[in-house]
Structure formats: structure tokens, C-alpha cells
Write a structure and sequence with these properties.
The chain is α+β, with helices and mostly antiparallel strands and 111 residues long. The strands form 2 sheets. The chain has a 4-stranded antiparallel beta sheet, covered by helices on one side. A two-stranded antiparallel sheet has the order 1-2. 32% of the residues lie in helices and 26% in strands.
Amino acid sequence: MDKTKELVAGVLMPEKMYLKPERVQEALLRLPSWKLRDGALGIESSRRFTTSQGAFSFAALSCRLASKMGQPLKVDLVGEQVILVLPGHPIRGCTGGLTSVVFKVADLIGS
């Protein structure tokens, strides 16, 4: 297998490209409802809806989008509030690892 590729769910994917801090800040400027989590372990967004059904539908759609992109997503759903967390991928045991896929998923979910 090519060393620049990795096997994910039976699909050959390009190697992840971790973003430098300045690229992370540029990406966050384009996504105003997303913010960097403490310790730069991922990005998060909090949304409030008028009904719990609206919040549930948004959370379900967000999960489907993240799943299709192969990106982990943590969802906290409490009543009408949804908190989404898109974590970075650890780099050799270190924290961080924000990739362009993290920000692509955040953009698809919306700002």
C-alpha cells in the first residue's frame, strides 16, 4: 500500500494533513459560530432552537454529515440546545491534529 494513503472503512483515503495554527485561525474566521476548544483539541458550536424537535433534527443531520465524511462528532442535546464538537485527530499521542476535513464538516453543518 502507498505510504501516503490510509485505509478507512475499506476505502483508501489520502494521508491527513494537519493544519498549522495560522491556518486554523483563518478557517475559524470563515466559520463565525465555531470556536476553538480549550487546548485546541477540536472545534465546537452551540445552537439553540425554538423546539426540541428542531434541535433533534439538526443534531441528526449533523451526525449524518460527519459520518459521511469519516469525521468523529460529539453531540450534546439538551432540550432546545445542541452543542457539537468536532475533535482533531491525535498526532503520535500528542493532542490537536485539526485537519481540513474538520473544517469542511463544520462548513457543511453550517455557521
